[in-house]
Amino acid sequence: MTQTVTVLGATGSIGTSTLDVIARHPDRYRLHAVTARSSRQALFELCRHHRPEVAVLDHAEDARWLAEALTRADVPTRVAHGEAALCEVAASAEIVMSAIVGAAALTPTLAAVRAGRRVLLANKEALVMSGALFMREVAESGAVLLPIDSEHNAIFQCLPHHHRGGLERCGVTRLLLTASGGPFRQWAPEQLAQVTPDQACAHPNWSMGRKISVDSATMMNKGLELIEACWLFDASPEQVEIVVHPQSVIHSMAAYVDGSVIAQLGNPDMRTPIGHGLAWPERIDTGVAPLDLFATGRLDFEAPDMARFPCLRLAREAMSTGGTAPAALNAANEVAVAAFLAERIPFMAIPTLVERVLARLEHGPADSLECILAMDRRAREVATAELERREQNG
């Protein structure tokens, strides 16, 4: 029996990898919908190749263009636009891949959760912004939430399936979240001041979009993952340890009270966790090459340099503060990264800007979607004002 799949953020690297795995198993999966913000040409190519039932773009003008292009190409995909359509396709498929980058993923992902779907979570920001609310909705709806980030998927595979209710209940003492260290792991602080956007986006192991690549270079990516791990696995920040592992072969580990450490290994290819989430609790072929341990040769580990990567400290502090602080952290970081990519600020100004924004805001409970989105907007306003003040002061 085939299952229907919606891919939110279909034109990004996670989205295209998901479509690759789905295409390998036409007997198991049928593509219900694909979405993109504004990449209409890329979405047209995906529709022509994969022929989903529905395609959704953000804006009416892009949707009109896509509908006309698909009609000319004799592709029967229906085209819609806007957030209501995004939420509709998220709620109407049996499996939903949430691969939209940034805060924009929160509302459609929650729509899928509330509909009780199997939600494959590749977006970090939904949990970072609204962890308590999000996990409460999962529990109440009966949705199946499966992490797709390679690190969280690895931890999920290393834990017993009855891990809900705290790590202590299943004998786990620590979660070991691995990090490649990004392209600047061994750079001197004075070198970091000169980093260009292209250098920051040249990741040594993974192929990712520009925003996530910069987050990896600042290690904010790992800070966001720490927050995400706390919510996914009911862990405290103190129970999550970050381990720099340059080869990206061990994707993460769980340490147990008896001294055991269980690790998940594999080549750095996102089709492995995607296939795991699509087929769980079964396993399917994903097209990923087998891991050659002899070619790998060695596995190295080191502690992260907190002075070189202040974003790690900021993320831990935001999680410890709780409430709306992680939402503010995420929003300020999105503004800062966009400014760096536009060459408005230098690389090391990213954590400085985020810290300034967090210091200027008062954080309350994150008990409704409205207050979370209000904090997201407020943090962006403050970050934008800080940017303008910085530029005026030269």
From TrEMBL:
Query: Could you say which EC number(s) this protein's record lists?
Result: 1.1.1.267
**Residues annotated for NADPH binding in this entry:** 11-14, 123, 125, 209
Which keywords has UniProt assigned to this entry?
Answer: Isomerase, Isoprene biosynthesis, Magnesium, Manganese, Metal-binding, NADP, Oxidoreductase
Per its UniProt record, the required cofactor names are: Mg(2+); Mn(2+)
Per UniProt, the enzyme's principal EC class comes to: oxidoreductase
Positions with a binding annotation for Mn(2+): 149, 151, 225
UniProt KW NADP keyword: yes
| One family name in Pfam for this protein | DXP_redisom_C
Enzymatic reactions: 2-C-methyl-D-erythritol 4-phosphate + NADP(+) = 1-deoxy-D-xylulose 5-phosphate + NADPH + H(+)
Using the record's annotation, list all stretches that form the DXP reductoisomerase C-terminal domain. 265-381
Q: Name one GO biological process term.
A: isopentenyl diphosphate biosynthetic process, methylerythritol 4-phosphate pathway involved in terpenoid biosynthetic process
Annotated ranges, domain 1-deoxy-D-xylulose 5-phosphate reductoisomerase N-terminal: 5-131
Stated role: Catalyzes the NADPH-dependent rearrangement and reduction of 1-deoxy-D-xylulose-5-phosphate (DXP) to 2-C-methyl-D-erythritol 4-phosphate (MEP).
HAMAP family linked:
DXP_reductoisom
Q: Which family does it belong to?
A: Belongs to the DXR family.
Q: How is this protein named in the record?
A: 1-deoxy-D-xylulose 5-phosphate reductoisomerase
Per the UniProt record, the source organism is Kushneria sinocarnis
Gene name, Swiss-Prot/TrEMBL: dxr
